[in-house]
Fold these 3 entries.
Entry 1:
Amino acid sequence: MSKSHKSGFYTAFKSINEFLDKYILPWPVRYLTFRLVILLTIFLLVPLILFASNSVLVLMANSYLNVMSVAVSSIVLLYSTNSDANQKQIAKLQEKRASEDHTHVTEMHSLVLKSIENQRVEIEELKQMLSLLTNQPYEEKVRGREKGLRALHPRGENRFKVNELDDRWKSGLHHNTLVNQINQDYQPDE
C-alpha cells in the first residue's frame, strides 16, 4: 500500500471516528449510565427467575442483558483507553512544567549569587570611601541593571498570567470529541 493510500485511509478513519464520537456514541453512553436504566436492567433478573418456563420471555431478557453487558464492557474499555491517553498527555505536560520550573529555580539561584557579588562590590566601595577619608583616590564603578524574577522564567511574563494554565491545557492536550460531548452534560463542581 502506498504512502498516499495509507494517509487517505488514516484521514477517512479519523473522520469516521470523529463522527461516531460526536454524534453516535454519546447516546448509548447516556442511556447506559442513566440510573433508572441500570436499576431496570438489574430487575430483569426477577422475570428470568419467575417466568423460567416462558422461553420467549427468558430469551428476550437474556439477549437484552447480553447486549447490555457487551455495550457496557466496550464503553468501559473505550473510556479507559481515552483516560490513559489523557493521563500520558498530562504527565508529559507536568514533566515539561517541572523542567521549566527547574530552569527557573536555577536562574533564581544564579540571581542570588549575583546579588552576593553585588554586596561584595558594595563592601569594596565602602573600603574605597574609607581610603578617601585617608586622602586616597577613588573611582566609582558602574553596575548593570539586574533582571526581574518573572523575566527569568523560560516563558517570561506569560508564565504568570491568570489564564496561563487553562490556555496551556487547551493547546497542549488532545481533545477527544466523544469525551467532550459527554463532559458537556457534567458541569464541574464549584
Entry 2:
Amino acid sequence: MKRILFIICLALGHHCFAQDTVPKRIVDTLHIQLLKSNFTPLGNAALSNTVSNVALSSTLNEGENGKIELKYNFKNRWTGGFSVDQKIGKDAKKAEFYNFTSGVSPGTTIGFNIQKIFWSPKLSRAGFEQFDALANAFAKEHGVDRRTVTYNDIATNGTPLQKSRLSEVKLKAPVFFNLKVSLTKSNFSFTADSVNLKSTDVNYFTPNLGLSVGVPFSLRSYLALSYSYSKTYQASDELTFSSPFGTTKNSFSQTLVFGKPQQKIEHKINLEWRQSFGETSTDFAIDPSITYGFNTDKMAISLPVYFIQGATKVGKPNGLQGGVSFGYLTKTSSLTSFKDGFWAQLILTTPFDVFGSLKK
C-alpha cells in the first residue's frame, strides 16, 4: 500500500495531499499500470490479464496446451475476457479448437471472465494533516520548496521519526473481484455390453465456475483468495476381453473401457500471492499459491516464475514472454512422494493488442 501511495505522490507532485480524494484520472492511470505490471503468461492467475495473448504450455507427463485470450478494458475499471484452451495430442501438429465437421474439438475449454476493481483511494483528514506537517518539517530541514516534497523524499531521506510517522499515513486499498466461467468438451469411448463388446462414443460439456477476491498491496503485488466449482468425468477401468476367432480354436484379445464414465464434482479454494520485480518495468515475477480440493482431499502447491514485461514504456506489447512453473500434488491424508507428486510446466506467450488496451 505504501508503494501505491508513493506512485500516486510521484504522479501528483506537490498536489498529492492538497485534497483527500485522489483525482479519477490518476486512479485510472494506476489501474492500467496495475494490470500491466501483473500480466500472467497463460492467464491462470486470480487477477485477469488486460493484454490479449497467444500461449503455448508444456507440462511434464501431461502434454501440451495451446491457448488464446482476448481481453478488453471497459470504463470504470471493468475488464472482460474470452479464452479458448486446447489440449494438443502427442502426434498433433496444431491446436484445433474447432472442426467444421464435428464442431468443438474434444479437450477444448471455452472460457469467459468479467473483472471489476473497486478503487476510490482517500486520505483521512488526520492523514492529510500528518503528511502536511511531515512535509513542512522536511522542507525546512533540507532547505527545499515545500511544494516539491513527496512521499518518497521523506521515506528515503527523512529522519527515523519522520519515516515512522509516515508509515501511519494510509490510503483506502483497492479490491478486485474476478468471475470466471468455462465449459470443457471431453470425449469417451466405452462398452457396457460384455457380450457383443460394442463400443459407444459420448461427449460431455463440463462446467467450471470460479470467483476470486484480491487486495493489491502495491502496483506490483497482490494477495487473492479464490473458490472454484467444477464437474468432470473420469473413465472407468480398462478390461481385457478374449473372444473366439471364427470357427477355429484360436481367440483374440482386446482391451476396452467397460462402463460409463463416472461424474466427479469438486470444490476448491486457492490462496495466491503475486509479486513482480523490476526497477521501471516488470522483469520477472513469482506467483506462489496453494490449492485444496474438498471432495478429493487433495492439496496442490505451485511456484510459477514468470519472465515478463507486459508492455514497453510507450505501451506496446514486448513480444515473446513466458516462464516456468513447478508444483507438487498430494493427498492430505497420506502424503505422496515428491517424485510422484512433482510436476513442471514451461510457458511461452506472445501478447498482442487487439482493442488498444495498452495505449490507455
Entry 3:
Amino acid sequence: MQTEHAEKSPVELAAQDLFDFAVDREDIKAVMASLHPDTQTPRHTIEYELVILKIISVGWSLAYFLEHSPHKMALSEHFWAAIREFSQTVSQTTGLMTGQDIDYFQILKDRLNAYVTAMNEKTEAKEPAVVVGPEFARTCGNKEDVFTIMAGSRLFISTTGSVKAYLEEIRLR
C-alpha cells in the first residue's frame, strides 16, 4: 500500500529552510572563533546569546523584508511554529538536565521584544545593527565591551543578509 505524501507549499518549504538556517550553528562558531581574546564578557554567555540572536534575527527579517508581501503572515506563522516546537524540546531537555523548568520560547519572545524596543527607541539609527550590537552586549551583561558589541552586530548583519538573499532567490519578497 502506498502512503500519500502531501507536498509542501513553497511557503512551507521556505519556512523549513529558514528554520534550519536559524538553528544551524556554523556561523555562530565562526563569530566565536573570531571573537577578540580581550573581550571581558564570558564566552559561554556570548555563545548562548548568539544562538538566541540568530533565531530572532531570522524571525525579525521575515517581518522586515516581507513587510508588503502577501506571503509574510503564512511564512512567519510556519517559521515561528517550527521555532515553538524546537523550543519545547530545548525546554524539556534543559529541564531534565538542570531540574529547573524553563520556557525557551518565552526567552526568545522576551529577547525579540527587547531588541525591537531598542530599535524603536533609537529611530535615528541608520541601520538596525547599530542598535542590535549594543543591545546584544547589554543582554550579555557587558554593554561597554566593544568586542561583544561587534559579535552581536556581525551575527545580526550576516543573518539578516542571508535571509534577504534567500527570500530574493526564491522570489518571495
